[in-house]
Amino acid sequence: MHSVDILAATSRQVVLQTPETQSEIFEYVFDDTLLALSFVTNIALAGLTILFIVAMGRGVTDPRANLILVATMLISIVSISSYTALTSGLTISFIEMPAGHPRAGEAVLTMWGRYLTWTFSTPFILIVLGLIAGSNLTKIMTTCAFTIAMCVTGLAAALTTSSVFMRWWWFVISSTFFLVIVYIIMVDWTAEAETTGTADLFNTLKLLTVIGWFGYPILWGLGVEGIAVLDVAITSWGYSVLDIVTKYIVTGLVVLYVVKEPESITAGTNYGSTRKAVVAPSDD
C-alpha cells in the first residue's frame, strides 16, 4: 500500500512539472539550449534570406521573374513567423501518448507549429519549382493542394492520442499524398524542365528538395512522435537542418538564377504566366 501511495505521489509530481502555460513552455524551451537553438537559428537564417532576396531582386524587371522572387520570399516570411511562434511557446503543447507508444502515459512535447510552417511554406516551394520547370497552373495547384493535405494529415498523426494505430494510419495517409507530389516533381516537371531549358537548375533543386523531404517522415518515425528513438531536441534539430536545406539553400540557388532574368523563366507582358508571351497575329 505504501508503494502505491509513493507511485501516486510521483505521478502527481510529474503532472505538476509538465509546463502548461505559454510562459512555462517558453522557459522549458530555453532551459534546453539545444532545442532553443534549433528555433532561433532558423529565425536568423529566415531573416537573412529575406534581406538577401530584397537586395538581389532590386534590378529585376520581368513580371514572371518577380513572381518567382516573391514566392521564394514568402517561404522565409512564413518560416520566420512560425519559428517565432515555436520559440514563444505559442505553437507547442505537451500531449500524453496513447497505450502502445514507447512513451505511453507520458506528456511528450509536441511541436505542432512545425506543421503550420509546412502547410503554408511548402506550397510556395512548389510554386517556385513549378514555375522554374515551366509547368502549367493545373499541375502547380494540384501539388499545392496535395501538400496542404499532406501537412494537415501529418498534424493529425502528431495530435492523435486515441490509439497508436490511428497515429500511424494518419501517417500512412500523409505519406501517400507526399508520394503523389514526388511523382509530379520527379516525372512530370523533370520532363517539362527539359523542354523549357531549365533542366540544369531544376535537377539540382529537385534533388535537394525531394531528398530533403524524405527526411521529414523518417524523422517523424524515429522521433518522439513515432518510435521515440530520438529525443525532442535532436528531432527538432533534424527538422531544422532539413528546413535549412529545402528552404534557404534552395531559395539562394533560385534567386541567383532568376536575377539574371534568363529567357527560360521570363514571360514578357504575360504577368505570372507559366508560358512565354505569345505575339498575336496582326490583322491584314
From TrEMBL:
One of its GO terms (molecular function) is photoreceptor activity. One of its GO terms (biological process) is phototransduction. The chain crosses the membrane at residues 34-55, 67-95, 115-133, 140-162, 168-186, 207-230, 236-259. GO terms for cellular component: membrane. It is found in: Membrane. Its main location: membrane. It comes from the Archaea. InterPro entries: Arc/bac/fun_rhodopsins. Keywords: Chromophore, Membrane, Photoreceptor protein, Receptor, Retinal protein, Sensory transduction, Transmembrane, Transmembrane helix. It is a multi-pass membrane protein. Belongs to the archaeal/bacterial/fungal opsin family. This is Halorhodopsin. It comes from Natronolimnohabitans innermongolicus JCM 12255.
